[in-house]
Amino acid sequence: MSVEQTPMVEPAVERGHHVSEQTPKPVPTPPSPAMLAARRPAVPRPPAPAGDAGGPGAATSATPAESVAPTAPSESVRHGRVGEDGTVYVTLADGTEREVGSYPDASPEEALAYFARKYDELVASADLLAQRLAHTEVSAHDARQSLAHLKEQIGDAHVVGDLAALEATVAALDESVAAKSAAEAQQRAAAKAEAVVRREELVVEAETLADTDPAKVQWKQASSRVRELLDEWKAHQRSGPRLDKDVENALWKRFSHARTAFDKKRKTWFAQLDEQHGQAKALKEKLVREAEALATSKDWGPTAGAFKRLMQDWKRAGRAARSDDDALWARFKAAQDTFFDAKDQVVAAEEAEYAENLVVKEALLAEAEAITVDEEHLESAKAELRRIQDRWDAAGKVPRADIRRVEGRLRAVEQQVRDLEDKQWKRSDPELTARAQSMAEQLERAVQGLESDLAAARAAGDDGRAEALEAELATKRLWLDSARGNLS
The pTM is what? Predict the structure, then answer.
């Protein structure tokens, strides 16, 4: 069996020999895969003399030479020599030598190759660690452990090779591990600072929600957001950087206080809201009962005014709980619709009647506007106009949209007659003043009567009659002003 096939067994022992090294002899450690890969084959020993073919060592003496192909020796052998007594020495950087061991019953080349191979294994381990530091995400902690193990292996290693170069490599590894530790420390510090900023943001948002005016809070969304903030806080604790204890405790105290304040304010708000809802419900139930009692009333004017008052009271009552408020509003609106639908039907019938009245008054306007108004025909014009006015009043109401238009046209004809009559009065006998005074008094009585009728129509809620009276009152006041002007 060759040396390379059993790396845990030293070649000399495998052949039945003993390799002597400086005491204390280091305990061999299992080589890593990279060390095994870098390990060079042992230099083959020459075959045993022919006279030994049947001796006790004949069974093991020839197998290395037969199973291992010759290879070039390691360059590390240049840093050592073998003394005449078989002792192997390594040359140090200052030119001195140090004894590393011996390889009995082996050639000097074999002895040097054995100790050089042990040096090459250490170099391979150092190179592997350097590659891991340069090209992998190995942590500084793992790198320090690997380097410590390598230094333990090197120690006062009994090897032949460039010990100064190996020491320089280890020193460079020390610097690389230190740099990686510093970089990781910097990354941890930056991550911790960022985590503090994010925790502060969570605290500030929770405090803002807790300090918001309850009337302006969207409680469903705000409550959900407070729960999300707590979940995010827990996630930071589980997987985020660990903060300094005093910093985390201070932030948590603020965060917990904000959550408590928010919950307390929410409970208080909804307790007050429940009380307000109860009061609003009681008031609206009363309004609904009043509306339902008025729903079948046929007293259109006063009842319409009553419904307007109830609607104003409804708006001032505030909101009950949503389900209660919706149900009460449905009852209130049904009562309101019942009344106004019936009223609208009556109004629609009246409007149809008013449309027919408009046709009559349009014809009367045509007659009035055709009257010849001059001094010669003044009396006949006045008589004709009075007949038209009588028929006008008897014709009844017209649609609201047409009141002002038709009344204005008739007033224009009446004004023509009055203007002509005024001219004659100014030229009349001394009885003019008496007639003017009488006319003014009549008009004053007429104005007073119209004002009384208008007040009654408004009190009854009869908007149509009120508009007609207003138009007539405006005309009578105009006449009264003219009559008073004649008396001045």
Answer: 0.41
